Request: fold
Amino acid sequence: MSKIAFIFPGQGSQTVGMGAEFVSNDPTSKAYYEKADHALDFELSKLMLEGPQEELTLTYNAQPALLTTGVMIAAKLIEAGIRPDYTAGHSLGEYSAFVTSGALSFEEAVQIVHKRGLFMNEAVPAGQGAMAAILGLDAEPLKEVCEKVSAEGDIVQLANLNCPGQIVISGTKLGVEKASVAAKEAGAKRAIPLVVSGPFHSELMREAAVQLQNEIEKVTITEPQIPIISNVKAELLQEISEIKNEMIEQVYSPVLWEQDVRKMIELGVTTFIECGPGKVLSGLVKKVDRSVNTYCVYDEASLQEALQALRGE
Reply:
């Protein structure tokens, strides 16, 4: 029997107005935005719906904003009778998976990802770190490039193994610039700088992980009702201890997204529903396996389109 996975995007997908159509037409959806405001004690919803984009993109705002939208959309799908067999999120998106799977309450998740963003920003202030997508070079030669640049004093490493032919690197601004040049010399087709505010999933985030660990000890984590696929190991996360370790290690470890997708397909998933703004993850899934079905739900029209297809109407 075919199975469904809900997948949740990470930083970079945030956009002013995300979820606006749901919030304006549905009191239940609006309640998620109001709960986020209350949990954080500032008007995150106003920033999400009105901007400015520059402020929304700051990691400590983008993280709770994306989580709120992703969880709200997943709840709408479940309310409509579409329940996932597995959940997974790309980087920050993993926290939306934790909430949707029942491992973490929405309010505590909003608070923890806001703090996660603050810790990341403190570890490496905006502008000092960078990330870039390297296209057309395999992981092993790219890893060698990064190790050579890092050995010369500018830290850079593999951060997101997204799909065949697309790997994101992360590190110091100079390290990423040097590795991008060296990667093209090694055969990469393109090196595209990413619009992010820090060197996520790199060793430069170790201090943020230490601070986050202290906060994770304060939150209530329960065994998930729906299995979650790990970013760090591309395996099922089912135990409370595994989820806690995932939250900490994921801050400075590579996101094994291609392996996550392959794992879900191996488990019988044939339909992936991206819950949140944009279509990035759906595109990556298709690059891993074109035979699977993908749907992106970000507004009323895309929700109805997905529901009709999934119900066979």
About this structure: Strands lie at 3-8, 86-89, 129-135, 156-163, 166-172, 190-193, 228-229, 236-237, 269-275, 293-297. The mean pLDDT is 95.
